[in-house]
Amino acid sequence: MKTKLLKNSIRIIVILFILLIVLGGSYSWWNVANPERTCASCHEISPSHTTWTASAHHDISCFKCHGTALENGWHSLSEKARMVTRHIQNKPHPDEIRLTEFQIFETMERCVSCHQNEYANWLAGGHSATYADILLDETHNTTEQLNFDCLRCHGMFYEGTILDLVEPISQQGPWNMKNKNVADKPTMPCLTCHQIHSKGEPAQRPDYSSPNNIFYSRNLENNSIGFYIRNEKIHFNLDNLPTPIILNGADTVQTPADPGYRLCVQCHAPSVWHQAGSHDDRTPTGVHEGISCRACHEPHSNYQRTSCDKCHPGESKNCKLDVKTMNTTYFSPSSEHDIHFVSCTDCHEDQTRKNQTE
Asked: What's this model's pTM, rounded to 2 decimal places?
């Protein structure tokens, strides 16, 4: 009797071991196999697979960005199980398959494994600001009351409203984060401006022998860059983003031809009257009118301290002066002459008056 039980136990153990090997091998195959045989076999995923095949990420496996069900313990296993359950129960439309905000944060961590330099630059710039940085800023909150539209640029993937994030909603503080889980999370992650699946080519170093390439990077003309619209819950490609009419008084400002400007101005936008410099607008006027944002600002870090040298090596050709020493916000943040709107007379007012009297 004991011998029989022992043999049955051994058979069960062997069967379970074989099943474990088969399941493990099958799952390993699933992660490395051609997506057409795995992920894309579900019709809801086919549109994403189609754009992925023409994207800069076409040689990167799905699980490199989306992760596996076993890589993060019980968290990822339960998450994948919920996804399968919802898939079976709801039969979602392709447009309804979206990452949650925390899934976006997790995906962003995987972006870093390849895009380390871009991530370091982004981390050093203003676009890495966290929810606490933005929503607990006393200077801003006492000047302008927090409102629902704040999340249009600062928290576009957040699944609640401003009422769920911070209190009180008034110009009287002190302010506290109600949702402390996102306090240290970035409000503008990679997917704010980048569409992972969209068509595009790997970035290439611009040909700086052409002056135009200093201002306009051609890699923005593909479909991999777009602005995520919170209300619509989709990315809008640069070609579909409007270029607003910007006014300087009664005059129409020449806006930059660079498609990247259409991206920047979605958040750095003027007031309803479209006056240059109003609200968060930084559309160049004066001597820099028409120049692209990225002529001065590096794309991920927004760093600009070496930008003058691109156009002004040494002394200015016109006034024979070192423009970096002029009284502008480039020289001193406290200057009243904002580099975005500086005109000749801002720095040469005395000389202009002298010429007028003569």
From this structure: 0.80
